[in-house]
Each structure stands twice: as C-alpha cells, then as structure tokens.
Design a protein that fits this description.
Blueprint lengths: L10 H6 L3 E5 L6 H12 L3 E3 H7 L3 H8 L6 H12 L5 E4 L5 H9 L6 E6 L2 H11 L6 H24 L3 E6 L4 H20 L1
Parallel strand pairs: 1-3, 1-4, 2-3, 4-5
Length: about 200
C-alpha cells in the first residue's frame, strides 16, 4: 500500500505535514490494531493511554495499578502529555476517554488534526469479542462497555469538533488488512482534498 508509491498518499504526511491523529473506537472495533500499524508504517510514535499505564516505570503509577486505584483525568493527561512533549507527529489511542480529558487537550493547546473513528455494528463487536474468549468478554459486560463508550464518545467528539478537529469515520467491518487500507485511503483523500 505504501511501498508501491512512497512519494504520494500517506507518506506525504511524513515529509510535508506535522500532525497528530486521534484514533477512536469502542471495544472490539480494532482501533488499536489499525492505529498501531499505521504508526509503525509511518514511523510515528503510537501513544496509547492504556499502554502508558501498563508499561510505566513511575512508582506512583505502579502503586496505583497494584492497588487497583483509579487514575483521574489530570493524572492520565499528565502521562499522555509527557509522552507527547517535543513530538510533532503521533497516533494517539485511548485518549481522551472523558469530556474532561478532551477539555484538557484544548485548554493546553494540543493541536489534534483528525479524529479517526472506526465504526463497527454492535452485533459484529459482540461476535469479535466473544471469539477472544476473555473472562470479561461476556454479553452483559460488553453491552455495558459499549454504552459507556457511546456516552463519552458523543461528548468528546462534539467538544473536539466544536474546537476545530475534523472527524473522519471509517467502516471497521472486514479483515484487518481491508480495514487498514480503508483507513489509509480516507486519511490520504482528506489530506489530498486539503491540498487543492
């Protein structure tokens, strides 16, 4: 997809643009898989709030994880912003998760160029998550997580779009390669349209 024409398309972003893409999607949509792959192909940092918490060497984070204490919006934001310091290009995944975190993004002047949202029908999400076989992937918990996501998603998107961030919606149904190519194509087309 990239290597056949490295001077055009998404690689254009690397050479001519500095941008941050925020990947959004509920549980089972594949946003982390697609976002991480795009970050690898572009050689951009993939900044995942979940991965930051899991991989942190900071003692206060380790202690909170050990005791299952929650992280408030300011704590999570500090960790994400520390990884974004001095970085011009990034794929951001799993942040913001709340309206307050979206407000922190705007208040601190972090420029997000695009929200890339992977959208998958709930029946397909149920099918995908049931195949994973994790103990928390039971219908009641999946429904609850999806409802939580949709509530916070609507607030976050409305707020960020209202503050000038462009929303790109991607059909997340299909094999990973297919969804990945679709995502790249939508981003590429958006950038090309902005160049006209």
């Amino acid at each position: 997809l990239f290597r056949s024409d490295p001077t055009r398309g998404v690689f254009f972003m690397v050479y001519y643009f500095r941008m941050k893409l925020l990947f959004l999607g509920g549980p089972g949509t594949g946003k982390s898989t697609v976002g991480n792959r795009l970050a690898n192909d572009l050689n951009w940092p993939w900044i995942s709030s979940g991965a930051i918490l899991r991989e942190s060497k900071e003692q206060w984070v380790i202690e909170r994880l050990k005791t299952a204490q929650l992280f408030d919006d300011e704590m999570v934001s500090e960790l994400v912003f520390s990884r974004l310091s001095g970085i011009e290009n990034a794929i951001i995944d799993g942040y913001p998760r709340t309206l307050k975190q979206a407000e922190i993004i705007v208040d601190r002047g972090l420029k997000i160029d695009y929200i890339v949202e992977l959208v998958v029908p709930f029946e397909e999400i149920m099918r995908r998550l049931s195949l994973r076989g994790r103990s928390q992937d039971v219908p009641e918990i999946i429904e609850e997580r999806q409802a939580d996501y949709e509530r916070s998603r609507n607030e976050i998107v409305a707020y960020l779009v209202g503050n000038g961030v462009k929303l790109l919606t991607v059909d997340g149904v299909g094999e990973v390669d297919e969804v990945y190519k679709r995502t790249v194509s939508i981003i590429r087309n958006e950038i090309n349209n902005n160049l006209k």
